[in-house]
Amino acid sequence: QVQLVESGGGLVQAGGSARLSCVTSGIIFSESVMGWFRRAPGNQREFVARVFNSDSPNYAEPVKGRFVISRDNAKNTVYLQMNSLKPEDTAIYYCNAWRDGEYNYWGQGTQVTVSS
Question: In this model, does residue 55 exceed pLDDT 90?
């Protein structure tokens, strides 16, 4: 059974930090591209960050320099460290596991609310 379970969301003041975690099971974690996406109220889900090889993460422009994605293959877990948070970062954040031609799984999401 595949599970992607996010945690770490909540209410944060602007300028603050939060760390999201996504613990996975039922996938070949070390061979999966792990990503974070988000959906703000009234918007479509959008890409935030992804990592396969820890030396080459990718970030969306709005979060570059503020967010850091990392993974721990021994714990089957991917993280998103979010710094200098802005009200426009308010969204539901989703964990994603993708393996070319094999699967594309999503977590249930965790709410992050940034107050001004």
Answer: no
